[in-house]
Amino acid sequence: MSTPVRTSRRSSIRGGETASGWLFTAPMIVLLGLFLVVPVLMALWVSFSDWNGRGSPFAGTVSFVGGANYAALLGGGGLAEQDFGTALRNNAWYVLLVVPIQTMLSLFLAVLVNRQILRGRGLFRTAFYFPSVTSSVAITVLWLFLFSSSGAVNKLLAFIGINGPNWFNDPSGVLHNILGVFGIESGPAALTGNSFLGISFWEWLAGPSVAMSAFILMAVFTTSGTFMLLFIAALQNLSGDVVEAAVMDGASGWQRFWQVTLPQLRPTLFTVLTLGLIGAWQVFDQIYTGTQGGPGKTTLTPAYLSYQTAFTNQAWGQGAAIAFILFVIIVCFTLFQRWLLAEHAVSARRMRLYVQAPTSGGTK
Amino acid sequence: MQRRNSRWLIGAGLLAVGSLTLTACGSGSGFGDTATNTDGKLTSDSSQGLNILIGSSGDAETASVNAAVAAWSKTSGTDAKVSVASDLNQQLAQGFAAQKPADVFYLSTDALAGYASNGSLLAYGNDLKNRDDFYPSLVNSFTYEGDFYCAPKDFSTLQLLINTDLWSQAGLTDADIPTTWEELATVSKTLTTGSQVGLAIGGEYARLGAFMAEAGGSLMNADSTKATANSSENVAGLQYAQTLLNDGVMSYASDIGAGWGGEAFGKQLSAMTIEGNWITGAMKNDFPDVNYTVAELPAGPGGQGTLQFTNCWGIAADSPNQAAALDLVEQLTSKDAQLTFSEDFGPMPSIMSAADEWKSANPTLVPFLAGADYAKGVPNVKGSADVVSDLNAQLESLNTGDPQAILDSVQKNLEALLK
User: Fold this and answer.
1) Which of B130-158 are b and which e, b meaning 16 or more Cβ less than 10 Å from the residue's Cβ?
2) Is A313 near chain B, with CB under 8 Å?
C-alpha cells in the first residue's frame, strides 16, 4: 500500500522541497518536542511510577508500579477516590452548564452586533469582548467582592426582596436546594445507598454548589466575548445570496436563522464547542486564586486536585494520573462531539424526498 | 491514505525521539543518581553560599529575617541570600526534584512527613546545641519516625480575644471572663445582639479543634502514631460547638461576611473570637480603634486545652554546606534572634529560656504563651493535610451535621494513612 507513495515521491519533480520543508519546520518540531512532547511523556511515566518528588523520576530508585496510581483514584475506596469523584462531579456540572450557555450567549451576541442597522456596533463589540482580555485572576478577585455575603449582588437581590445566598461559602447543591423547596430533603435509598467513585448517586445529582454557580456565571461572562468574536467572523463570511434565496422562498426570520444561517456556522460551532469544552474541563486559575476547592470541596476540580495532590500532598504519581484521566475525558468528549456535529450521509429514506437533487449532501 | 501514512510516520518518529531522550535522561549522569551521605557527617563545602527560602507574611518579616541572616553572614563569613517564595510548597518541590533545593527554608508541620519520607530533609534536630531548650510539644511536631528533623522556628497558640468596649457595654466585668464552657455560653449569649454575634470563629479544624482539646481529645496521639479522632471527648467538643452555633451565639466568620475570625472581630461583627497571636498584627494595621484583651480559652470537661501551630527551619539533605546551615539555624533560633523576630513581626519564641523576657515585653499577650503548657499539635503524618481538609469541608455544615459521623469518617481516613 505504501509502495506507490514512495515511488511517486521519489520520481516527483518536487522531491527536494520535502527536505527543505522539514528543514524549515525543524526548529518548531524540536521546540514542541522538547517543551511539550517530552514533558508529557515524562508525566505519563510518573503516573505509572512511585516517584516521590526527590531527584529525577528516571533515577534507579524509582520503580514502575503499574496502574496502582490509577487504581487508587478509580477504585481505591479511600480519600483519594472520594476526592477525585467529587472533583469530577463538580467539573461535570460546570461543563454541562458553562458550555451550552456560553455558546448560545456568544452566538446571540454575535447575531445582535452583526446587524447592519445597529448604532455604535464597535462600542458593543468592545464592551462584550472586554472581559475576555482581562486577566482571570483580576476577574476572580472582582467576583469574590461582588458575590461576598454583603456584596453588590446580594445588595441588588435584597433590593428586590430576595435574601441572597452566601455565595462563595455555600456548599449546598443547587438541585438539592430546588428539591428541598418541594420538601425532598434526602434521596431514595437506591440513590443514597449506591455510589460511584466514592460518592453516592444522590451526591452526584446535587448539581453545582452555590459557590460553583458563581464560577459558572463568571466563566460565561469572561468567555462569551471571545467566542462572540469567532461567530462574528463566521457570520461575516456567509454569502448574502443564500439568505436572499431563503427570503425569496418565503422563510421567516426565525426560519432563516435556524435552517439557513446556523447550518452554515457548523464548522465555527464545532470550534467554539471544542474550545469551550476543553477550557471548561481544565478550569484551574479561578479555583487557585478564589476558593482553593472550598466550600465543602464543592469547587474542587480535577485540574486543581492534580496540582494539590502533587505539590501539597507529595503524591506525584497520583497527581499525574489525575491529569491523564482528565486528558482521556477531554479527548472522548471532543470525539463524541465531532461525531455529533459531522455531516452524516443522508439516509435512503430521506433521500427520496430530494428526487430532484439526488447527490446533494452525500458527497461532501 | 497517503496523508494518514505520513502522519503515522511523524507520530512514530516523535515517539522514538521522545523515548530516546527519556532514556538519555534516565541513564545520564546529570540529574540521575541520588547521592545521599549516609555516614552521618554534615557536608561542609564552604565555597558554597547558603540560599534561604521563606514564606513571608509581609515586609516586616522579610526585612527582619534579612537582617538576622545578614548579621550571621557577616560574622561567619559565609554568603547567604534570602528569597521570599510566592508559593512555598511549589518552590520547595521544584528544588527537591532538581536536587538543587534551598539550603534552609520554612517548613510546615503537615509538609514535614512528605519530605522526610522521601529523604529530602536533613534530620539535624539532635545536633542542635540548644536542642533541650525547645518546648517538647514542638519537638514532637517535628519528629517523624523517631527522628527530630528540624528546629521549631516559632509558634502560636489559639486563645480567646474579647472586645473590651462591647464587653463593658453589655455590663460585663473582668470577673465575667469565662473559665468554663457554661460561662462561655452565657457570656456569648449576653454579647449577642441584633447587629453582632457573641463569638465568631473560622469554621475549620484549626479553630474548632480547640474545643476538642478542651474536652480532652485530639485527632491523633502526641507522636502521630495512632488515630484517636472519634473518641467521645472529640465528639463532646464538636457537640458543644454545634450547640453554640445552633443557639445563634456563635457564628462562622464566613457566615457573617468576614474572611476570618480576626476580620469579624475587627469589624465588630462579633464581640469575641478565637485566634492565634498573629491577630495582633492585623488589629494594629487594619483595626487600630478596636480595644481588646486576650484571655485563656475556658476549660472544658478535659481541663484547659488549645491548639498550637508552628513552622521549622528545614535543612535540605542535598545542601552542599549543611554545617553552615546548621550554624545559621542555631543563630536564628537563639534567644536574641527570636526576641527580635517577635518584636518585628509578632511570633512567639520556640525556646523556653526566652519565655520570661517575652512575657515582660508583651504583658497583654501572656495568655498565648501560657497556652504552651497545655496546647496540642496538629497531626503530622503523611497525607494528614488531605484528611484535615476533608474534615474542614464537613465542619462547614456542622450546624446540621452529626459530630459522631463526621469524626468516624476522619478516623477511617487517618487509619488508612497509618497502614
Assistant:
1) beebbbebbbbbbbbeeebbbbbbbbbbb
2) yes
Three-state SS for B107-170 is EEHHHHHHHHHCCCECCCHHHCCCHHHECHHHHHHCEECCEECCEEEEEEEEEEEEEHHHHHHC
Round to whole Å and give the CA distance between A41 and A168.
Answer: 37
Distance of alpha carbon B298 from alpha carbon B159, whole angstroms: 9
Cβ distance B104 to B52 under 8 Å?
A: yes
Place B5 in a pLDDT band, splitting at 50, 70 and 90: low
Q: Which of residues 119-158 of B touch A (CB under 8 A)?
A: 119-120
Q: Which of B17, B252, B390 sits opposite A33 (nearest CB)?
A: B17
pLDDT per position as a tens digit, B73-97 = 999 888 999 999 988 988 998 899 8
Q: What residues of chain A lie within 8 A of the CB of B382, using their CB?
A: 314
Q: Rounded to a whole number, what is the distance in Å from the CA of B71 to chain A's nearest CA?
A: 32
Contact B385 A313 (CB under 8 A): yes
Mean predicted confidence (pLDDT) in A322-338: 92
Instruction: Give me the pLDDT at residue A292, please.
Output: 87
Min CA distance, A164 vs chain B (Å)? 12
pLDDT in tens, A155-203: 999 988 888 888 888 888 888 888 888 888 777 887 888 888 888 888 8
Q: Which of A2, A53, A312 sits opposite B97 (nearest CB)?
A: A53
The full set of domain ranges for chain A reads 84-173+208-351
Q: Which three cell numbers stand for residue A130?
A: 472586554
Q: How many CA atoms lie within 13 A of A300 on its CB side?
A: 25
Q: Please give the pLDDT value at position B45.
A: 79
Cross-chain residue pair B389–A293, CB shorter than 8 Å: yes
Q: Is A141 on the interface with B (CB under 8 A)?
A: no
- Please report the pLDDT score of residue A167 as a whole number: 87
pLDDT of residue A86: 92
A interface mutation test: which of B89, B394, B415 has the most A CBs within 10 A? B89
A45/B22 CB distance under 8 A: yes
Interface contact B418, partner A, CB < 8 A: no
Domains and CATH numbers, chain B: 50-156+309-375 (3.40.190.10), 157-308+378-418 (3.40.190.10)
Q: What is the mean pLDDT of chain A?
A: 85
Name which of A143, A141, A198, A200 is nearest A176 in CA terms: A200
pLDDT in tens, B217-234: 999 988 788 899 999 999
Residues of A in contact with B380 (CB under 8 A): none
Contact A33 B387 (CB under 8 A): no
Contact residues on chain B for A9, CB-CB shorter than 8 A: none
A16: Cα separation from own chain's centroid: 42
Q: Could you give the ipTM of this predicted complex?
A: 0.76
As a CATH number, domain A84-173+208-351 is 1.10.3720.10
| pTM, 2 dp | 0.81
